[in-house]
Amino acid sequence: MEKLKALRDAAANEGGLAGAGLQFGAGLELGKTMLDKKDTNVDPVQQLQKLKLLLNEGIITQEEFDTKKKSG
Prior knowledge:
By secondary structure, the protein is mainly α. It has one domain. The protein is built from 4 helices and no strands. It has helices at 2-12, 23-36, 44-56, 62-71. Helix 1 (2-12) packs antiparallel against helix 2 (23-36) and helix 3 (44-56) runs antiparallel to helix 4 (62-71). The radius of gyration is 13 Å and the shape is globular. Mean pLDDT is 74; it is low at 16-20.
């Protein structure tokens, strides 16, 4: 989550990632990386909250959200 917030902050900064034209692709890669990680110590509620944030930010699709939600 902290990486996602840092990415958004950098994107808002004219000299940040958005200035280099990298924001969208980097955000997608970050979101996909977060989805692919298997952490057995993660609280399921926290995991759903992270997934919902990624969905709301447009980083993942509704289909990806639903798939990850079902797979736990």
